[in-house]
Specification:
- The structure is a homodimer of 322-residue chains.
- Chain A folds into 2 domains: 140 residues, 60s Ribosomal Protein L30, Chain: A (2-Layer Sandwich), CATH 3.30.1330.10; 163 residues, Phosphoribosyl-aminoimidazole Synthetase, Chain A, domain 2, CATH 3.90.650.10.
- Chain A is α+β, with helices and mostly antiparallel strands and 322 residues long.
- In chain A, strands 7-9-6-10-8-11-12 form a 7-stranded mixed beta sheet. In chain A, strands 1-2-5-3-4 form a 5-stranded mixed beta sheet.
- The longest helix of chain A is centred in the first third of the chain and has 17 residues.
- The first copy, chain A, is globular.
- Helix content of chain A is 30%, strand content 25%.
- In chain A, helix 2 packs parallel to helix 3, helix 2 runs parallel beside helix 6 and helix 4 packs across helix 5.
- The first copy, chain A, has 9 helices and 12 strands.
- The interface between A and B is large, with 75 and 75 residues.
Amino acid sequence: MKGYGEFDFIDSVREMFRAVPDNGFEGIGDDCSVLPIGGDEALVFTSDMLNEGVHFLTERSSAYQIGYKSLMVNISDVAAMGATPVATLLSLALPKERFGEWSKEFMRGYYEASKRYNVKLVGGDTTKSDTGVCISVTAIGRVAMGAIKRRSAAKVGDVIAVTGKLGASAVGLRDVLNGKTETENAKIHLMPEVQIAEGSWLGKQGAVHAMCDISDGIASDLQHIVDESRVSAVIVERSLPIAEGATLEDALCGGEDYRLLLTVEESLADDLSKRFEQEFGTPLYSIGRVVKPNYDVYQIGIEQEDGKVLYSSFGWGGYHHF
Amino acid sequence: MKGYGEFDFIDSVREMFRAVPDNGFEGIGDDCSVLPIGGDEALVFTSDMLNEGVHFLTERSSAYQIGYKSLMVNISDVAAMGATPVATLLSLALPKERFGEWSKEFMRGYYEASKRYNVKLVGGDTTKSDTGVCISVTAIGRVAMGAIKRRSAAKVGDVIAVTGKLGASAVGLRDVLNGKTETENAKIHLMPEVQIAEGSWLGKQGAVHAMCDISDGIASDLQHIVDESRVSAVIVERSLPIAEGATLEDALCGGEDYRLLLTVEESLADDLSKRFEQEFGTPLYSIGRVVKPNYDVYQIGIEQEDGKVLYSSFGWGGYHHF
């Protein structure tokens, strides 16, 4: 489970459920949970909820865009495990005035995104809402056991890499809030493309240790990796691939970039980078390195132009709804 | 998918997704969809959404009761397939004032229900809501391929049976709306018990053909069976096990009874009934029979005291949110 920053609540829930048998499930708390199904195969599962007024504004996003994005952000978590999305279940709570045209356009967007990656809709629920639109998507992915990438697998010495430029979605969100819904960045924010083929390809690379998707900003998403791998990390400021028009803070904390964040065995990083670029035509950006933690404090430092590393002096916490 | 009665919308969505490959999934549109995973085993999947003001009132139900019920109604769909629930994903949208005590009590109820049936919580999401509470649960079940019971498997001549008395939840809902939240029936409505062991046991019985759970009232749930099996059905009015205090309409259309509705090979019905009672200490009630449809119209008739069968003369449609 993940969410709005009430990590104490989430931890207490996980603790509470310790008394219930796992029934074969692993990796609870990662981007997805994992169920090995035999024959070296596993299924992965993830759920996301999108709420009107919190995750989207019906005045600023079309129903089509909201449908499209609802599917995309969910299967991004599947790709982040090295898995291929195969199916979703969709539950929709709709105010009366959203039935009819709005719900049809929503489904058209959801369908276009699903069709693009051959993801079948296999269940769900529709219900009335007395208030706003509430959308819940559960995605199911399939993966070879050996290709599963977990947040907890980063090793000291690893190179930290990202699969694309950062901060465009944050710029796009500002555009949208200013009423400019047609800019290039606004489109990236409203209808994000996710990296399904990249996730699946990176899953198969033994050189890749830990992986997750960048949904809350790397300041927050990398923190999950260092916490769960019990390491620290240094980001080299001048290496960050900042999207045009974005600030350093957008790139670190903007959220919703839906690129992949990974750590790579150092001696294999250059080779992986070359092969990634050959495969996808876009670079794999090295942005830093995994380092030994001090006194079991797992933290992220920023290496500045002068070579100095600043730890903990910044209040970045990723994107929070609260 | 199922829902509030907008079956046209649901049909159009199913039609839309015909162009996307099934990826191994079957039975889309039943209580659960089914994914065979090899070795004669399958997983089943279902999602439900519960919305404040529509499915529950926070003034009338405690957070604990809402949590308990959210899990129960979902795993009832799993039991209805003959499967055993193994895990859920839970997404929660909460207004600010529902964090803290309310959310803890909700989770305590959800946990108690999960623990009771050894269902692990393996993922989910928490998010802010600007309006009311919205709850989405996806349940995963496990079943032997040969034990899966589908709505489409009813055969002409089958006996129709239910696993318990009907209408108590409808009486309980009236009690709750009248402020009497402590009556026996109110408790049945607020914290329904579901028939996990019964579903799993009935799944293993070859005598059982079709099965579903009674969530919308048998008038509606049996209609799904007759539609998908391309048969008609006659309910014998005097055979209906009506709960104390309930009316005929409560029993047929009240909804939320969460008993199981099944059709049984006629020659094996008496034996099954005996063994069910031995196993669970409660009767399996025969309430009617599956009959040949007239002119491909799949309908439900009621056989009255005088032996006359009335078709289509009643406006029962099960429980609708709209």
